[in-house]
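Sample 3 of the quickstart, ligand adenosine-5'-diphosphate:
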Amino acid sequence: MRVLVASSEMVPFAKTGGLADVIGALPAAMAKQGSEVKTFIPLYDPAALKDHTVHSTGLDLKVSVNGTQKSFTVDYIKAKRLPLEYCFIDNGDYFKRLQLYRDERTGSDYTDNDMRFAFFARAVLEAVKGMGWKPDIIHVHDWQAAMIPVYLKTLYAEDPFFANVRTVLTIHNLAYQGTFDGERFEKLDLPEKLFFPTSPFEFYGKVNFLKAAIEHSDRITTVSERYAEEIQTDEHGCGLQGVLQRRTSDISGILNGVDYTIWSPSRDKKIPYNYYAANLSGKKMNKIELLGKAGLPVREKTPLVGIISRLADQKGFDLIAEIADEIFQMDLQMIVLGTGEEKYHQLFEELQQKFPDKLKVYLAFDDSLAHWIEAAADMFLMPSHYEPCGLNQMYSLKYGTVPLVREVGGLADTVDDYNPRTGEGTGFVFSEYTSQALREAIERAVSLYPRRRPWTKIMKAGMRQDFSWDKAAWKYLRLFEELIRD
Ligand code: ADP
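Result:
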């Protein structure tokens, strides 16, 4: 089976969040199971390719965007020993910018994001045509790649090259939909009938890329089973619940995996001390050194809580804010790594000043430090309001860093609440989105921590969990096969 994967991010070339981790791992897992896979992302920064042998397709193509011809070239990297190629759409105007989506000077999204990703979609379609490589399945991720199924079913509907090509849209986070002012629709070179009230693109007078893709893709998946249900409800549907409910029989959830070649404490190259479930002494050393680096006192019997996150409302920081004083009166220390909304930068900076021997905050994006925190912390806090899948709680399980999460989305599907009667469980789970429920869960965890035996049992139960990509890839490929047969 030939699978084209299109996304705006991919580890190790460009990353702002979990989407990049997924695209860095899933295509390889699909290729390992015998599919021929090509990934496409925009080329933002040529330096990202410097450690690889880059081949040119020799293609020098143009697509029309808003009536002007935009040219691009296509380079690619071959994966070792797998039928897998990483292809890059190279157009300097649109993609060689400091950040992926946001203008650093204004702090707002680039004003031409609609044009950039509409261009990307058409460029991908023209690229595979130019390469003479016809996919069976086009698997697109999030709103940035969402225009591919739309163009395929409109501008390219009569193109024999794409006859019988099936499309799958994976939604990694329904809150990000790619919405733009209504008058920008005419710049997309699409039939007007797609933009009138209740038509595929129209969303309260705006253009909505994700909505259009939901209407134009053959199947829709999300990144956990729980989230697949949640997005069809008023609470989590972000205004698209009606559109999604109409397609309910075509929606399914496939839990993301973890790339254990990158995220395993036994072979992680980014942590000072490797360790195993059978010998956890390295974990303790990682903690002692990290506390030293952070300037926090080493208190052996005090649990260290880690947070690595975008500092966004989604992640439940308002709950932490409500009970911050109570949290820091408990016997715990905390290290926070994150960037995002200014109000949360301020919150954590103020708390750091107030509790200097309990809290260290790094307002940065730092992948190596993220690994170290995972390896050093005793608990990982993720009280999300919603969480399509979440990766850090799965990394935490592998690192023996007991997750404390809210029962929502992928968090609900991956962490089992500790049961003191049976001693079973892999973490601490609370349901209600209230600061009281959060406080109770933290209290439960902090009071159990000094009891080494049950605590170690929880750690080891987590370390045994297997969320490998092989499972997820297998499920995607079965879905693709079914779709081709239909
Ligand atoms: P989301 O995609 O909603 O941001 P996920 O948990 O699915 O959340 O994925 C987040 C990914 O980004 C993880 O790999 C996490 O380690 C990483 N990450 C988030 N913030 C930072 C940061 N400040 N520094 C380093 N890595 C981060």
